[in-house]
Amino acid sequence: MAYDPKTGKGLGRFYDADHRAFKFREWKGLKDTLYDYGRWMYLYCFMAAQLGPYAPQMVKGMLRYRWLVPYLTAANMVDRHTIGQRGKELQYSHKQFFSVLHHSVIKVKEIMQRDANLNGNSKKAEALRNNTVMFDEMTPSLIMMGFPTLDWIDIAMMSVGMPSEVDQNSCVYYIDAIEHFGLAPDVCPEPATECGVAVTDDYPRVGKCYVTSSMPCDGAVQQTALMSRYLKDVDIFQITPPQRINEPEVQDYAVKNLKKAIKFIEDEMGVKWDWDAFWKNAEMYNQMAECMIEKWDVNATDYPQVCGAALALQREFEFMGAACMDKYMLKTDLEVTKMMHKGYEHDSKLGVNKPKYRCIVWACPAHYYTNFANWADLCWGVRCVNDMEAMLSYLPITIGDKEQALKDLARCYERMMMRSHTNGGYVNLLDELWKMCDRFNVNIVIMYDHVSCRNVGGLHGLFEDEARKRGIHLIWVPHDVMDPRTVSRREMRDAFNKYMINVFREEPLDPTLLDYEDNLSW
Amino acid sequence: MKKVFVKAAKIAASVFAVTFAAYITNADMKLVERLYDALIKYHDSRHVEEKL
Amino acid sequence: MKDLKHLIYFENLLQQADNELVEQGRKDGKLALGYTCYFVPETLLNLPGCFSTRLRAPNTGSIDVGTYYMTNKICSYTRSILERGIEGGYNYLDALLSSETCQMMHRGHEHFELLGLVKNNPKFFMSMMDVPFSDSDNAVDHYEDQIKTKLLQPLHDVYGVDISDDAVRKAIEDHNEISAIITEIGDLRKLPNPPITGYEFHVLTLATYACPKRLVLDKLQETLEEVKRRVPDTDKKYRARVMVIGSEIDDPGLIKLIEDTGALVVADRFCFGSIPGRQEIPLTDGEDALTQVIRFNLKSTQCPRQCAQHRVQNRWDTAARLMKEYSADGAIYEQMKFCTYWSYERAMAGYIMPREYGMHVLSIDRPYIAGQSGQLRTRVQAFIESLEIKKINEGKGEAK
């Protein structure tokens, strides 16, 4: 336990209202501190090795792109998610987060290598761009499974998605920029930020063509329209999967749309779809999905292992960022799965490490507070055993049958992050929650109340009614996904605290985490 | 051989001491904070034309 | 101008969703089919034995219960529909045909199913279609499948509605008949001194959406003849001609508010307006009528949900074309507050239309019932004055 009742020292002491960085790092005991230190060194060595050769571009990049600056704080992101953790929990988090950062650092390197804004007239950079497809965030790049000779970069993930999770204030400037054009402030900040990056011309130019989509929601549809205008000098394809995803009648249309996307890339890039490469990558996707399901199976027991952001964020990036094609992520998955089984055996044998409370997280998460579930565990003993956003596409791709494989691939797109539960009708969002509560044996749901989300908000009352009937504690935690000014991290914690104090009549495990100022923190 | 080993061990110990001190005091992030603030200030001072 | 003979009659019909003509339609044994979205092809809800009723919630006061279920970040149109539904205001419906187009309304319609809001009819069903984002051949094929599976087949299976090609052609014929009248009246707004105001036109158009069409046909026909003969005031009473573009307006009070500031609304490019919605659907014999209706629907919609580049461009070009056709001095881009689609469209229009098309634009958001808004009145008034001043200055410039 990180809180010492004798001395009153808890984890809250690391936060500094006047600074962004923690006051110091946590002493976790000799073994865990040395382990944590080793991982910290490894992260910096890895970053230095990958990005060191591109130091001039990195400096130029940080002066050119506001969104690149938060990447300096990568180590802080790990600290935020490992604070208070010990033993195998600490190891799970480090492994999971490192695989995310590993992928992100490589993508930043790739941007540095080929960005037209940073590389002037470099022929080498131009050649790399001509071999690269740009993707929009919320457009999974799984389609690249069949194009092994091409590179791809998700320009919105790298300039919006990742920075928003590393630094809570990274999107504010871009949101304001698009609102200067009269965009209503009540729309979801995610597509708004993506539009803001466009109107300030802050996207890197790293590819020959651009693939976007209508996913996951109304805001994304509109963002697509604006991006198409912004990137009018490149050819663009919109992947538009059906929304009634549970219905078999729509799948033919989904496959046709995907085939058109494949044709687009073939025509633009002058390469042909490679089925052999696709099968190999599909195998990788299947293995990763299998690892995720195993994690869920263990988390459904009395001894959950890989929990909170370590479970959810890694899966989100694995699918949305890396398109399940990152060998390092697969290696990590297999290692963590092995560790997890070992950890489960240990805990179940000795009957230890059972969480005080179990919960699942539902609805769209706050990008600016990715470690909220970790805080809930440390402060109140409420352990998040699964997260709706981690429950994205997990059904396998059929190997060997081309038509079926394309249907399966289309299904992956339909069930991507933020879509798997918000599209396809209320059965996916409302009814599915109760099934998951049963499956994971929880009676608490951290219900992310995204104040600009019409999709989930549209069923708010029904969630309340049904939760009451079932005796489920629905703890509504408001947030505004990428804009902490609307609802700060502190206000999010306050909403949770009120429920735990007034309804559960609980005392915090660490009182120093109850209330503290962290508006400046990354 | 022994001298080389001793020298290497001293270097390793020094590196460990310095890096560990930086790690536990969070000096790396405190330095990054200064850089971050300076860079954001620089970006705030830039005139950026906003256009659709 | 002399008052239109049937205006009060039509205004009274709009005071409630379940008005006397809807009741008459049901008494005549017709099925009342509700919908809200343009993407649900209205024509197909007027197959023999059916009539369409586009849902409105007139005279809505408090929407507290709708807000409980859907929160206050959902557009007030959706919440008002839900509130009225919970009150039993749509108990007359035999089916609600919906589409997963706008997130808010589709969630609103799901409540009809989840809360069992239509209690009078055990056969009532809510059916939701998957709508494509473009108008390509692929999109038309997909949407045709959806319409067959989710709209036509259920109507046939549950109520025995004739969904044959002939039935669809008859429905299109009826649609074209009423559209021809509305279009002919609407075209008179292109005149320098139109014999009909925007408010009056909107009342007539709304009546055709809210009531069984065959029951308003004769009065509409009479109104057309009356408007053709109507002598407008010799002095033009308006200061500027404006086009209104945007999200749904089923409250003619908003058009009245705009016209009370001295404007004349000459073109209604919004949902529940006539553009699109009251154009004749051209039919050929060489192809299924259903396919033609669907293609027409996907190609004529002006909904910002269609994000394909050529469709986005089409919307800008259409706005510019209509400005010219109706000799409008400016455009009011309006959106229902909290509408995501129109938030973005409006923001882009505010930038693109003045710069690339030379259009004078006012951009506003508004609640569902906006006829009494002083704030809105002030903004529109200022816009009209600016249009007036621009016209005067342009006139002076030409004189020189």
Written description of the protein model:
The complex is a heterotrimer of chains A (522), B (52) and C (400). With 522 residues, chain A is α/β, with parallel strands linked by helices. Chain A is built from 19 helices and eight strands. Chain A has helices at residues 30-51, 55-64, 74-82, 87-114, 123-130, 155-166, 172-179, 189-199, 218-230, 251-269, 275-299, 308-321, 327-350, 372-380, 402-414, 426-439, 454-457, 460-470, 489-502, and strands at 132-135, 151-154, 209-213, 235-239, 357-362, 382-387, 444-450, 473-479. In chain A, the strands form two sheets. Chain A has a four-stranded parallel β-sheet, sandwiched between helices. Chain A is globular and about 65 Å long. The model of chain A has no long low-confidence stretch (mean pLDDT 96). Chain B is mainly alpha-helical and 52 residues long. Chain B has one domain (2-45). Chain B starts with a helix and ends in a 7-residue tail after the last helix. Chain C is globular, with a radius of gyration of 21 Å. Chain C has a four-stranded parallel β-sheet, with helices on both faces. In chain C, strands 6-5-7-8 form a four-stranded parallel β-sheet. Chain C is an alpha/beta fold and 400 residues long. In chain C, β5 (240-246), α10 (252-260) and β6 form a beta-alpha-beta unit. Chains A and C meet through α9, α10, α17 and α18 of A and α3, α5, α6 and α13 of C.
